[in-house]
Inverse folding.
């Protein structure tokens, strides 16, 4: 099962990757994760092995805080040039439930690309208000992620 998740940062934007994560909807969290789990295994495109993300925190199960937080996520964001985004416009990612407590995170370059095309066609002011540097960063973020997609899909097929 696939979920769309949103990039999250605690506002500090540390080079170490600390303070970054992805935010799930409450419905997706409740449907695909279990309060009985202490952690999940998360496969990132830039790593061969899974990282372990703590989900036993009370805050993760609260009404407002539904973030999977780990410095490795922040480091991956940095590696695909997605660690900085315009205020209120974080990038989206695809989180795939592989089974039990195993998940895979991918850049949602298809969503980014299709959104930019539709906004361009409709002359929506959403992208028009953003400078070219932001457009190029999102384009770079999407392009950088493409190479990671096939690697991760190969990884998930082995399950």
């Amino acid at each position: 099962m696939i979920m769309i998740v949103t990039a999250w940062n605690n506002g500090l934007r540390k080079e170490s990757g600390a303070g970054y994560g992805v935010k799930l909807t409450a419905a997706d969290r409740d449907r695909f994760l279990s309060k009985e789990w202490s952690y999940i295994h998360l496969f990132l495109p830039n790593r061969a092995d899974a990282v372990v993300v703590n989900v036993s925190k009370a805050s993760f199960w609260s009404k407002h805080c539904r973030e999977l937080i780990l410095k490795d996520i922040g480091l991956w964001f940095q590696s695909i040039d997605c660690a900085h985004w315009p205020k209120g416009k974080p990038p989206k990612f695809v989180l795939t439930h592989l089974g039990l407590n195993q998940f895979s995170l991918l850049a949602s370059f298809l969503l980014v690309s299709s959104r930019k095309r539709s906004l361009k066609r409709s002359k929506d002011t959403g992208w028009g208000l953003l400078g070219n540097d932001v457009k190029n960063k999102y384009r770079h973020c999407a392009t950088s992620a493409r190479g990671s997609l096939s690697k991760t899909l190969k990884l998930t097929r082995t399950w």
In short: Helices lie at 26-32, 71-79, 109-122, 125-128, 132-157.
